Amino acid sequence: MQRRSEEKEMKSKIINFIFIFTLLLIATPSSQADELVHKFKSPSFSGIGTSSHYLTIENQEFSRKKAIADDIEAALLQAERDAENTTLAKFMRNLESRIYAQLSKQLVESLFSTCDITDPACQQSSFGSFVLEGNTITYQRTTCDASIYACVQDEEVIIMTITAEDGSETTIVIPIGAGSAGTG
User: Fold this and answer.
1) Conformation bin of residue 182: beta by default, left when phi > 0, alpha when psi is -120 to 50
2) Which pLDDT band, with edges at 50, 70 and 90, does 117 fall under?
3) Strand 156-163 relative to strand 135-143: parallel, antiparallel, unpaired?
């Protein structure tokens, strides 16, 4: 009897196993396999989109180089501004400005001074020359004639010629006593 119960139990287990196995086969969706294909992701190897890939690389390189050049230029400009704003640089600009102002004042007084004939101490210069930062400046006090343009005939003028280091010349004709008002 025990044997029969063991046989029934064994049959029951087998039936349960078959039932569960069948249920799993029915419940599980069928799976399908596809062919495995290797594709390169880089356009340099696959050839797909190669030109746009190269263009992107070129643009990135150009942008990096431009950013580096801009950073260097900005740093140089900042260093130049910093050098111009030192106390010594400000002092030198101020001193240079005052020296030029004094020089110009003395030059104007020398050019436009008129002497009284009765004063023997007064000396009036009719010409002169000096060099300023590589530029030669000459002046001459004369009377306007036909060879001089931009002046009235027989008017007293100062002709100032500035010769630059490269040899180029600028000539300025300055009338003396022009623009006097209230006569007449």
Assistant:
1) left
2) low
3) antiparallel
